[in-house]
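Appendix B, Record 12. Input sequence as logged:
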Amino acid sequence: MSRNEIIAPPICVNCKRLRPAVYGQWGLRCDAFPDGIPEDIIASRADHRQPYDGDHGLQFLAKSAAAADDAQHIIGEAQKGSKVTLHADEMSNDWLYAWGDLPATLDGLRDYLQEQHIAVADFKNSARYEANYDLLPWLKDL
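Logged structural output:
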């Protein structure tokens, strides 16, 4: 995998219905699945832009037009039957920052990681870091 290739997270990260992470609870939760989003949706094997058993009539609701396009791209790649690996430059900034608002400065990012109890080493091993390493050169100083 090259530096700007990333394994795509579920389309859920750009859904208006996604609930904030709760420290100590594993997994993604949303209004449709308050007890945990099913693995088939997380792995993009199921397209939650369509009804899914147990979703209480609530499907993916894109945060923006770019998020809707990104979801289409991710699901399209997943339906080809392989692991969804995309290039960061194929996705919108909405998608790249969907796990929360990353600060736009080195000092701001350091503070954010500290406040969220995220180790710098863990962040550097994340898809978010990998996706932005070339686009935001100041990340190299983290």
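The mean pLDDT is 75.
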